[in-house]
Amino acid sequence: MDEPVERVVGRRIRQIREGQGLSLKALAARCQLSLNAISRIERGDSSPTVSSLHRLAAALDVPITDFFGSDRGQRTVLLRHMDRLCTRGEGAMLESLGSGLPGQRLAPFLLTLLPGAASSPQPILHAGEEFALCLAGEVDYSVGDQQYRLEAGDTLLFHADQPHLCRNIGLEQATVLFVIRAPEEESRMCHQRHLLSS
Questions:
Q1: Burial of 148 by CB count in 10 Å (0-12 exposed, 13-18 middle, 19+ buried)?
Q2: Residue ranges of the domains in the chain?
């Protein structure tokens, strides 16, 4: 029987934290999450939101993809549909579509939003570029001061150093494929400021 995703991610976070010699208290101070919340995530008792994962990744100075994969020496990554690692938030689910390449600069994700749900409570920004493809439903992408309505088949490409947020404005579930790419010198930070409320 496969181990629950929460336990896999929690164990990986604990390994990275302990490898850096950080106590739970020190990590909590760095990422502004409670000590209890981090402890529950590490034990696999709580499914972390992507916002929480980004805070933890930023505090640990690792890309968020490090929480979803441990073999960093691969040159090719095959991920079966049923093996995708995902995290859930209020009305939202984010699935990692591939990680584990050495020096990986692309981070592909599948975002599923229920009607009215948003990718984060407020716009975020990060280094690099972001590409979005609306696969189903209807979403509103706020980028900087502009609003872009995407329907199935529509795409959006933008510099991600502009504040941005995605919201399902339709009456049906919406699905968005998005890919983050960061410059090599900033690739460790580009995946750490995205999606879902904590």
A1: middle
A2: 5-67, 81-186
Give the model's pLDDT for residue 66: 76
- Is residue 176 within 8 A of residue 121, CB to CB? The reply is no
Least confident interval from 5-9, 40-44, 160-164: 5-9
- The DSSP output letter for 124 is B
CATH 1.10.8.60 given to domain 5-67: no
Asked if residue 108 lies in contact with residue 179, where contact means CB atoms within 8 angstroms, the answer is yes
Q: What percent of the chain has pLDDT over 90?
A: 37
Decide which of 106 and 179 is more confident: 179
Reading the block at residue 189, the tokens are: 């930070």
Q: Residue 154, class by beta-carbon neighbours within 10 Å (0-12 exposed, 13-18 middle, 19+ buried)?
A: middle
To the question of domain 81-186 being in CATH 2.60.120.10, the answer is yes
What span, in angstroms and rounded, lies between the C-alpha atoms of 61 and 128?
17
Instruction: Kindly compute the dihedral angle of the four CA atoms of residues 178, 184, 68, 93, in this order, to the nearest 10 degrees.
Output: -20
| DSSP at 160 | T
Contact 186, 58 (CB under 8 A): no
Structure tokens at 107: 């981070």
